[in-house]
Amino acid sequence: MSETSKTTSKIEIRGLRKSFGSNEVLKNIGLDVAKGGVVALIGPSGSGKSTLLRCINLLVAPDGGSVRVGDTRFQFGDGAKLPDVKTLARFRATTGMVFQHFNLFPHMTALQNVMEGPVTVRRMAKADAERLARAQLAKVGLAEKAQQYPATLSGGQKQRVAIARALAMEPDVMLFDEATSALDPELVGEVLSVIQQLASEGMTMVIVTHEIAFAREVADRLIFMRDGIVVEEGPARQVIDNPREAATRAFLSHFHRTGALPPANATS
Amino acid sequence: MYQWDFGILWSYRWLFLNGLGVTVGFTVVIVLLGLVFGLFGAFGSLSRFRAVRFTALTFIEAFRCTPILVQLIWFYYALPILAGVEMTPITASALALSLYGGSFYSEIIRGGIISIDKGQSEAGAALGMTPGQSMRRIVLPQAIKRMIPALMNQSIIQFKNTSLVSVLAVPDLVYQSQVAAHDSYRPLETYTAVAVAYAAILIPLTIIVRRGEKRLAVSE
């Protein structure tokens, strides 16, 4: 029985609520992501999309509702106890996250950054972790930058190291929190092409993004949020090309929705 | 014109060396013990629990905001009367100086930890680290680098603060030089030599630490 639910949805969120003080950021949110599915979350800033993403790996603890990733399910709200730090850590080890500002560890080389999760969290032998880390760096096209410190890398390279670092944990799902928003325009393409490659390999992903053309290309489902609720949801192309709701139309009118993705320099 | 005569100090050399040994040994003890108190103070003041935070802050402010000379006298003379705790002058002054230094170390360590971007511990947490792991592996290695200049500064002050233990008749360098000055009637030469001795130990130390800082900064 759980077998079928696993194949139908990898991530399942029900009735999710979150407030910061008197500010209700998420109001009764539901979300399903199929195994191998790619869901893009779009919406104006302050819409709650980043908070929703951070609730999926419990970096933010919801006030109510439930979160399930794979076979692990957490219930929040009335009487439900918050999970202890060990349980939380084990759960987060199965979800990869990529941040807007990379958050690479500046005191470690690119290679050490990628090895850190496998060595510290998965207790992998150093030699095995290094092999795994080098493979992940090669995958994002940065094999030759292994020994460099983050300070010497470009924004696009930093973000690709951050993606390799998350992948080295061999996660079930990947969460992207505005992964290209802090990048110079000419560096966006190289990061998007890595994400696109992950999608084509069947990685289950939730992507918070302002790259509408990219979302249209890569995501199979799209969710438009505003003021803590899901305003519109559907197949990505359908929502972007023919939005039903006025709010979605108004938001999308600020973007070029189609056209070529920014080129990934060096590789293309 | 005053006639300097440093030659006279030579006959007190063993007195000075003894005193210097006590001063250096004392400093090592109060710096190490102070760092232990500092760690407790820092992590206590960052605790999730109110009672722990309150206790840590009370300790920090009690020792940071009162004069060390008063603390020394208080530990040696007041504690036996008030709490029935008898201590030798050496224990009393080591404890007072360690707690005094610890209160400053606490704030330095706490400041270093909170200066590290929250995104760093978030990235650790997202990889599946426990808060303890991300503190050890991610936050502290970066924070310590930032703490070193301030910790060094405070330790230099601690080294010089040991001169105050002479009020409890602990035979440190300053105490012994008082003896020498009274005996030789040459206080100018004696205290000048003492100042030179302190500087001669501290200056090379500061150079070593500066070098170390540069080496550590390479990765930033």
As an assembly, this protein is: heterodimer
Average pLDDT reading of chain A: 90
Helical element count of chain B?
A: 8
Helical fraction of chain A equals 25-40%
Helix content of chain B: over 70%
How far is the N terminus from the C terminus of chain A? 45 Å
Topology as H/E string of chain B? HHHHHHHH
> Largest interface, per-chain counts?
A-B, 33 and 20 residues
Mean pLDDT over the residues of chain B? 91
Write the layout of secondary structure elements.
The complex is a heterodimer of chains A (268) and B (220).
Chain A (H helix, E strand, L loop, with lengths): L1 H7 L2 E10 L2 E11 L4 E5 L6 H8 L7 E6 L2 E5 L8 H8 L2 E4 L11 H12 L4 H14 L15 H13 L5 E5 L7 H16 L3 E5 L3 H7 L2 E6 L2 E7 H6 L4 H7 L16
Parallel strand pairs in A: 3-8, 3-9, 6-7, 7-8
Antiparallel strand pairs in A: 1-2, 1-4, 4-5, 9-10
Chain B lengths: L12 H33 L4 H15 L3 H16 L5 H26 L3 H10 L3 H31 L11 H12 L2 H31 L3
Helix pairs in contact in B: 1-2, 1-4, 1-7, 2-4, 3-4, 4-6, 5-6, 6-8, 7-8
Question: What does this molecule look like?
Answer:
Chain A contains ten helices and ten strands. Chain A has helices at residues 2-8, 49-56, 85-92, 110-121, 126-139, 155-167, 185-200, 212-218, 236-241, 246-252; strands spanning 11-20, 23-33, 38-42, 64-69, 72-76, 95-98, 173-177, 204-208, 221-226, 229-235. In chain A, strands 6-7-8-3-9-10 form a six-stranded mixed β-sheet, sandwiched between helices. A four-stranded antiparallel β-sheet of chain A has the order 2-1-4-5, covered by helices on one side. In chain A, β1 (11-20) and β2 (23-33) form a beta hairpin. In chain A, α4 (110-121) packs parallel to α6 (155-167), α5 packs across α6 (155-167) and α6 runs parallel beside α7. The N and C termini of chain A lie far apart (45 Å). Chain B is mainly alpha-helical and 220 residues long. Chain B has helices at residues 13-45, 50-64, 68-83, 89-114, 118-127, 131-161, 173-184, 187-217. The longest helix of chain B has 33 residues, at 13-45. Chain B starts with 12 loop residues before the first helix and ends with a helix. The model of chain B has no long low-confidence stretch (mean pLDDT 91). Chains A and B meet through α3, β6, α4 and α6 of A and α5 and α6 of B.
